[in-house]
């Protein structure tokens, strides 16, 4: 008789299963890292747009170290400093509707920009 025994077939199935588990884990970690990197690139683009917005709206910026200005993404879109399209967070596939916080740095001669994924309060 020619063929494989049941034990041999089970051994092959177990080996294939282990290889699948290892592959899926590796692919998931690469996908998650790519999504995180994409999000960080989007945030850098948003902050760059906020810096351009600052050049046109300097009178709205804070004048002392203890205050800040909250700039909604919608305002960046309306001003033309960002494309007027929906920005999707690649990590969770939801629309980004955050807030750029502009604070005074080094005696208000420079400004510090940060992005927070929350609605602006002002």
Account of the 3D structure:
The chain is an alpha+beta fold. It has one domain (7-116). The protein has helices at residues 6-56, 73-79, and strands at 68-72, 88-89, 94-95, 99-105, 110-116. The strands form 2 sheets. A 3-stranded antiparallel β-sheet has the order 1-4-5. Strands 2-3 form a two-stranded antiparallel ribbon. The model has no long low-confidence stretch (mean pLDDT 89).
Secondary structure layout plus pairing:
Elements lengths: L5 H51 L11 E5 H7 L8 E2 L4 E2 L3 E7 L4 E7 L6
Antiparallel strand pairs: 1-4, 2-3, 4-5
Helix content: 40-55%
Poorly predicted segments: none
| H-E order | HEHEEEE
Query: The biggest beta sheet, please?
Result: 3 strands, antiparallel
Q: Hey, roughly how much beta strand do the residues contain?
A: 15-25%
Secondary-structure-derived class: alpha+beta
Mean of residue pLDDT values: 89
- What gap, in angstroms, lies between the N and C termini? 82 Å
Number of domains: 1
Beta strands, count: 5
Counting DSSP H or I runs of 4 or more residues, the number of helices is 2
- Largest sheet strand order: 1-4-5
Described by the principal axes of the CA atoms, the overall outline is rod-shaped
Taking Cα atoms only, what radius of gyration do you get, to the nearest Å?
Answer: 25 Å
């Amino acid at each position: 008789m020619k063929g494989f025994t049941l034990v041999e077939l089970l051994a092959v199935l177990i080996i294939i299963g282990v290889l699948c588990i290892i592959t899926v884990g590796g692919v998931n970690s690469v996908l998650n890292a790519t999504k995180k990197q994409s999000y960080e690139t989007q945030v850098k683009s948003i902050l760059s747009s906020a810096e351009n917005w600052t050049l046109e709206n300097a009178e709205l910026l804070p004048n002392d170290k203890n205050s800040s200005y909250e700039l909604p993404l919608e305002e960046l879109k309306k001003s033309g400093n960002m494309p007027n399209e929906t920005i999707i967070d690649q990590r969770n596939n939801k629309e980004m509707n955050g807030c750029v916080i502009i604070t005074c740095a080094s005696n208000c001669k420079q400004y510090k920009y940060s992005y927070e994924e929350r609605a602006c309060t002002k």
